[in-house]
Specification:
The protein has two helices and no strands. It is mostly helical. It is globular and about 35 Å long. The N and C termini lie far apart (37 Å). 2% of the residues are buried.
Length: 57
């Protein structure tokens, strides 16, 4: 884990790690030509973890 995060509350640390994951994934896929927004990237990352592969209606 990142040393600067070890003194943070668990909920804040988890939120920051999720933001980093979303940003890094979005940036990586954007370099490859993907046009998803950061919000759409986060949606698909969360959906894939829960087993839900469909967009909400």
């Amino acid at each position: 884990m990142f040393d600067f995060m070890q003194d943070l509350d668990n909920d804040i640390r988890d939120a920051l790690l999720a933001q980093l994951r979303n940003l890094w994934t979005h940036t990586s896929t954007a370099i490859e030509g993907n046009t998803l927004t950061r919000g759409e990237t986060a949606f698909f990352l969360i959906s894939s973890r829960s087993g839900n592969r469909h967009r909400p209606e």
